[in-house]
Specification:
With about 260 residues, this protein is an all-alpha fold. Helix content is about 80%, strand content about 0%. It is built from 15 helices and no strands. The longest helix has 22 residues.
Length: about 260
């Protein structure tokens, strides 16, 4: 049973893979969801809930996207609202995968991810912020261009600008190093001039400042990325509006929370 996995700290990967493979059959998925709902009702510790979240991630990878939203997302939403930060954080990757795979409206998924970002910044939840960046970096190249342009890239830029306010240098360095990998992923995506102007260049400028201050050995890497992006548009050579426009958008994002 799932309780045995939790109590004995057994490796959950084989179980997750089994659930994921079986979930491709809709009738079986419904049975699996019932099993997970029962386990969640009986769960008494964060480790057990974390196992349920990992299994849900496997379902998100393999099951039909609409079935995921209908049947798996309610379980993940309950876990995301758990008072334990470990449990909340364990759901981040699943919401990111749902965003990537969804063929319909993603507003509820975006709202949950926005909630994670806002809480991570306002409450300095470092482990969740790191997980958000890693999850966004993982799904970014696989998402459709609209989600890249309208959600993932702006949110990564938002996280980057907020990083300068972190006073703990170790935490700031952790986020900076993860953002460098995220921007390497961004540069592999299709970029409109508007996205470059409003988000990518200002985000890289903020990242360059962070690298200079906490990861100086990575400064050249970020500088080269910034030069590459700026070479794709004549925007930066005309005026400095990108930073100002971006700043107002970041402020608006946090005011809505």
């Amino acid at each position: 049973t799932l309780n045995q996995y939790a109590q004995q700290y057994l490796q959950v990967e084989p179980l997750t893979e089994t659930f994921a493979e079986l979930s491709q059959t809709r009738s079986v998925l419904h049975i699996l969801v019932n099993v997970l709902n029962t386990a969640l009702r009986e769960a008494t510790n964060p480790h057990m809930k974390g196992i349920i979240a990992k299994i849900c991630k496997g379902l998100c990878d393999c099951a039909d996207p609409q079935d995921i939203v209908t049947h798996v997302m309610p379980i993940l939403t309950r876990l995301a609202n758990d008072p334990d930060v470990f449990v909340q954080t364990s759901t981040v990757i699943s919401f990111a995968v749902m965003l990537q795979r969804s063929s319909g409206s993603v507003s509820s998924i975006r709202e949950q991810l926005d909630k994670f970002i806002s809480e991570s910044v306002s409450s300095d939840v470092h482990v969740m912020m790191c997980e958000l960046i890693e999850s966004f970096t993982l799904v970014l190249p696989l998402c459709n261009p609209d989600i890249q342009r309208d959600f993932l890239i702006p949110r990564l830029a938002t996280i980057g600008v907020s990083n300068s306010a972190i006073t703990n240098k170790t935490k700031r360095r952790d986020i900076t190093e993860r953002l460098i990998l995220a921007y390497k992923s961004i540069l592999c995506c299709y970029m409109t001039t508007d996205t470059i102007e409003h988000y990518i260049v200002p985000g890289l400028q903020a990242l360059l400042t962070d690298t200079q201050e906490v990861v100086p050995e990575k400064q050249q890497t970020v500088d080269l990325m910034l030069r590459e992006v700026m070479s794709k548009t004549a925007m930066a050579s005309k005026d400095q509006r990108p930073s100002n426009v971006f700043g107002s958008k970041v402020s608006g994002f946090f005011k809505k929370k």
